[in-house]
Amino acid sequence: MSPKSFQDLINDVHDKGICQECGGCVSFCSSADFHIIDFKDKYSPPVYVKKDECLECGICYYICPQTHVSDYDINKTFTFSDYDSMPIGPYYEIYSCQATDSEFLKNGSDGGVVNSIINFLIEKKEIDGAIVAKTEAPFLREATFVNKKEDLMKYSGALLDISPQLTEIQKFSTYTHTIPELKRYTDNKLAVVGTPCQIYTMRCMQELGVTPSQNIEVCLGLFCFENFLFDKHQIKKFENDFNIQLENIKKINVKEDLILTLKDNNRIKIPFNHLTDYMRPACNACNNFTNIYADISFGGLGSPDKYTTVILRTKKGKDIISEAISTGVIKKLNLDPENKDKLIDLITRYSRLKIQRYEKFSSQIMEAH
Ligand SMILES: Cc1cc2nc3c(=O)[nH]c(=O)nc-3n(C[C@H](O)[C@H](O)[C@H](O)COP(=O)(O)OP(=O)(O)OC[C@H]3O[C@@H](n4cnc5c(N)ncnc54)[C@H](O)[C@@H]3O)c2cc1C
Ligand code: SF4
Ligand code: SF4
Ligand code: SF4
Predict the structure, then answer these.
(1) Could you tell me the residue ranges of all domains in the chain?
(2) How far apart are CA 36 and CA 127, in angstroms?
């Protein structure tokens, strides 16, 4: 393969409109103390800040989820070879789980399982902390480090309490730059919570053994069908389209639809196909719904209210969940075989839908370039 640089990422990824803004390239380049690229605008792809000093090491290119350079090696590591026959990826078990701690349950997006697991690992001293995302407003999250239960509670934030100054914020996104945040905590053993594109980037870094992936103990992956990007104009349109005020949203859940719980406790369900105007365009170039490379994947889809669907993928992930269940940190729903099949079918259906969307988009991109 010819030597690569960030310019190749611009040509092969940014110019095609498929940069997922995961932050992997920036994270590596600054952790390695090169500082050649950065995010100028938080919600746009990274750019050169010192182009003439670029070492053309190519690492930013190799770890980018959109170049797919590491697919073969990572699929070998994760014993995963065929999207069509097994679109939800390799796994040991699939459960519906719930936090036993009432506060985690109350504040959780679904069953409060992710934060319960993070807290469990911190208390056991298996990790020093985790990179999570705090909720600032509906569709706005910021990556942050937590190492205490109180902070986990504070930031778990599916429940929203919008302060007035947030109307000043120009752009809203459910997206957060989890990976660049990593480089600030390289002396810690960390858990990382991320969307499939972020966890995939992390795995590429681990496969290549590049910084700052060395301190990641466990990858906790969220399901993700798509992500949203709102500027002021889009917010107005969203409010008009669905006849709601953003400030009246109390909670957001993602299952078969996007579910908004309002402050008056009314619930509005918006099907994904009504949200295409708000979707981040680069999400079309993503085929991974259930976070196939995580140690454990978590989603709302397929589980009853206040439960989280949990997929145990790696040996490490399996051990963590088994211990969390046996010590009573979380509990699992007893699903009979019929309901278990329904759960798996539903996740498989959404995984296939995402793969189909990706394939359609990819062929359009191929035609255009
Ligand atoms: C952008 C996005 C899209 C999603 N799409 C789907 C979907 O299509 N279908 C589906 O079934 N589930 C989806 N989920 C997952 C679902 O909403 C819940 O996060 C999941 O079920 C875990 O619930 P919980 O109550 O166990 O987690 P909790 O215990 O509430 O913990 C959630 C943890 O995730 C962290 N977090 C939240 N957002 C981010 C983020 N963007 N980056 C990094 N960390 C974050 C929080 O800080 C918290 O630590 C999505 C989540 C996100 C963030
Ligand atoms: S120094 Fe290496 S990682 Fe940084 S921008 Fe250049 S090629 Fe990419
Ligand atoms: S590594 Fe992530 S942020 Fe960098 S170009 Fe690729 S998708 Fe974009
Ligand atoms: S759909 Fe989700 S995982 Fe895929 S690029 Fe968008 S945010 Fe990332």
Answers:
(1) 6-368
(2) 31
